[in-house]
Amino acid sequence: MAAARRMIEPAPFYGELFARERARLPGHGRSELERVREEAFARFVALGLPTQKAEVWKYSPIARFANREMVVAEAAVPRLEDVSAWFGGGPATRRLIFANGHLVPALSHVGGLPEGMRVTGLARAIEEWPEKVAEALAGCDPERSFTQLNTALARSGAWIEIADGVRLDEPLQLLFVHEGGESAAMTHPRILLRLGRCARLHLIETHAGTGDGHCFVNLVCQMALAPEAELTLDRLELGAAGTTLLSRTLVELAAGARIRQTAVALGGGFLRNETEVRLGGRGGEAILNGLCMPRGEEHADTLVRIHHEAEDCHSDQFFKGVVEDRARAVFAGKIIVHRGAQKTNAYQANDNLLLSDRAEVDSKPELEIYADDVKCSHGATCGDLDEGALFYLRARGLPREVAASLLVYAFANEVIERMADEKLRALTRRAVLDRVPGGAALEAEGLL
Amino acid sequence: MLRIEGLRVAVEGKRILDGVDLEIAAGETHAVMGPNGSGKSTLAHVLAGREGYEVEDGRITFMGEDLLAMEPEERAAAGLFLAMQYPVEIPGVSNMYFLRQAMNAVRKARGEPEIAAGAFMKMLREKAKLVGVPEELLRRDLNTDFSGGEKKRNEILQLAMLEPRLAILDETDSGLDIDALKAVAGAVNGLRTPERAFLVITHYQRLLEYIVPDRVHVMVRGRIRRSGGRELALELEQRGYEQFAAEAA
User: Fold this and answer.
1) How far apart are CA A110 and CA A107, in angstroms?
2) To probe the interface with B, which of A392, A400, A406, A447 has the most B CB atoms within 10 Å?
3) Model pTM score
4) What is the DSSP letter of A140?
């Protein structure tokens, strides 16, 4: 009975939608892939959609968004000027650009890559290596229904594979534009990334929501890093009011491999970002930074799971929230130090600014430790702007609103400056200033 | 310029200032001395408009205006400046940017045109040199990881840039060694003009050897117990605050 309340049945339209869409998916007719999709969809139906009785969804009523009638998003053809505002990197940056979950080949450019590096849209990867894709999809996240739904319906995304020792110095950008249309439309992008031994990549992932309607994005990223590989991931989410974005990033780190992720969520009606990292070999390192700034009625939920499975690994979580109006920020971060993972260093900080009486922050730090020689710490704070700092700025002539905005900017900037890409940092800072009342006055004086 | 009459102020129901009267004219430098807890810093904060102080009685006029009716930023625009005892560290905001934002906010409030970037930089370099603030400090985040002396110098740099009518120095000498104290005092003396007034708040007489006041006021238990010339400071140095505490009791 209890289990039944934690999950509810998916609405009937899902069955009809899968029956209709499966023939339109890339690689239709390839038996191995067909089987994986069928099994995933059956698994999705059997698992159902989580309600708020499920612990990891306690504060986030996802079923409200996921169980309303939706269609699969149709391809859109944006122009360059529609998407160039979100370009990160520099002139040599290669990009895959997706509109409503469909790759836009005319705007994408991934040519001239070094030997040993493959970057293609998922559909093309399915055409070329259906067995490899099927193998990557199968068995991923068997207990998570949204991953199963993604596996059943993923039609696009990216396949990124870098051979041993190959490094790409210029960043690679995956740019998603999600347009809310008249009828709520969903997309299920899948990113599959593999870095060989000592390979190195700087990936930029951007999500921009446009339009007044609703869209539902169910993204799954699987990233596997071989020993000593290094991944830098900058992610920026600029959703619209009707954007529901679920992202799930699964990272497997072998010995000495490192990930440095900085994820900033600046807008979107309902955002849920999950990152789960497995430190599976000695000496791995995971640095995760995050910022969300929900306002109005927005909801931003961050879930982090770090598994220390091997000795001598390091993890550091640095997450901040700025919550205005009637918005809500949720942070649940868990560090699990497995038996035998001695000499673990694991840190977690979650600091929040609560700027309105009706805003809410739910912060839940957790430690589970099964080894005895570890250094772990976590801390969560939630408060208003520092009164002394506010007075200091006002006493120098800054109007209250401008002073408050400057302090919010400074608070947010401590995360933003950890983004590796300069262009993305500038884009993010401008988006922060757009979201604070004194932002225009600050920008006028050349803050950026 | 500044007139304080019968000022009574409480914090969380406890009276800190108990009837302060003080008048400062343009061009004058006044010192308020007193032991810890006498209400000196409260006076400075109330003048600058910090929240959390209940003004129970009395009035303050600044340039003929009712100061207590003004927001802190309006007081700054009217020409009042408080060099703080504990300048706040604000990581993520550069010192230079902050100065420019402050200058233009004050100019805008006065209906003056904004200062052009080139003119600002020229002025900033000049004043920084005058006050002894190295260029490197201008590029750093505001007060962040500054030493005690650097913070105090940075306050005086802001004073020099904002050119107020009345500058209040709240324990600017605290935490300074003798060389830094001389340097800061020298910079302040360079800013003394017939139009500008100073209110120097200090615990020790030492600062007043370098910034020589026109008037000295002794504050004990929330009230000015005696006023006099600079010789009063020397008397305090020899005899301490105890005689005034006895008078107040």
Assistant:
1) 10
2) A392
3) 0.93
4) S
The count of other CB atoms within 10 Å of the CB of residue B187 is: 20
Domain boundaries, chain A: 2-279, 388-448
Q: Comparing C-alpha atoms, which of A361, A438, A376 is closest to residue A402?
A: A438
Query: Do B62 and B2 contact (CB within 8 A), yes or no?
Result: yes
Tokens read off for A237 = 């989410």
CA A213 to chain centre: 21
Tell me how far apart the alpha carbons of residues A231 and A119 are, in angstroms, rounded to a whole number. Answer: 15
Could you give the CA distance from residue A353 to residue A404 in angstroms, rounded to a whole number? Answer: 11
Residue A211 — left, alpha, or beta (φ > 0 → left; ψ -120 to 50 → alpha)? left
Query: Within an 8 Å CB–CB cutoff, is residue A446 touching chain B?
Result: yes
Question: Which residues of chain A lie closer than 8 angstroms to B93, CB-CB?
Answer: 406, 409-410
Mind listing the domains of chain B with CATH numbers? 2-248 (3.40.50.300)
- The predicted-structure confidence for B104-113, as pLDDT tens digits, reads as follows 999 988 899 9
Contact B40, B201 (CB under 8 A): yes
Alpha-carbon distance B33 to nearest alpha carbon in chain A (angstroms): 23
What is the ipTM metric for this complex? 0.95
Alpha carbon B104 to chain centroid, angstroms:
21
| Nearest Cα residue in chain A from B99 | A396
Q: What is the pLDDT of residues A243-270, one digit of tens each?
A: 999 999 999 999 999 999 999 999 999 9
Q: d(Cα A224, Cα A235) in Å, to the nearest integer?
A: 18
